[in-house]
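Query form — protein Precorrin-6A reductase

QUESTION: What is the three-dimensional structure of this chain?
INPUT:
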Amino acid sequence: MILVLAGTQDGRQLAACLAAGGYQVMVSVISDYGRSLAELPGIGVHTGQLTLAGMEEFIATRRIKAIVDASHPYAANVSANAMSACETGGIDYIRYERSEVSVPEYRQLHLVKDAAEAAKIAAGLGKNIFLTTGSRTLKIFKTEPLLADCRLIARVLPQPEVITECIELGFKPGDIVAIQGPFSHALNAALFREYGTEVVITKNSGTIGGADTKISAAMELGLKLVVIGRPAIEYKNLCRTSDEVMTRLLAGTAAK
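ANSWER: The structure tokens for Precorrin-6A reductase are given below.
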């Protein structure tokens, strides 16, 4: 059995590819929404966050032969837990990660290491700040004292729990853009204009994560752009394509 940590679209596609290749596959997702997307023929689904202890138990009880970590590029804790659990369980760990978008030279571009730095940098760039970083970093921006006088617009998934979190953090309904991607260049530009955006904050989550169209739209409008870099993690067995993952599995001990 192969456990695929698949919190992303390309992760789910990879799981389907492995199942089609004859592997027994179990997909791990966080939410019921993720489960609804991952329920594909021949693939089992585990819903809920796996802690390190939970992952170790899961490996032992489900007889997992390998973990393919296709979690989001910024889910550093998930990857760290997976690598540790694989080492403890004596099984293969394979990291599948989408490529970054090549960020063009741009005078208004600011590259930062994390959301906390992004919040501080953005405070000196403008008053209307459009957040496209997902819901998990919203608290960092909302609690940054330097942003107290700024208008923060949060673009998030249209899920009840996410909307509730936004409201509890103090976002006004008019500052919550609840919409499901992917977003085209034109739609990004239209939203940035509509909200009077001065600063766009995003992550380099790759083309499939829409980083390219967010960056290009911000550049077209001449907006300040803050891009959060990916966590510096030394992955074992890093793969960029499904073919590379299959090759790693065949070379390892993961049986079909």
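ADDITIONAL NOTE: Residues 2-99+232-251 form a domain with the Rossmann fold fold (CATH 3.40.50.720).
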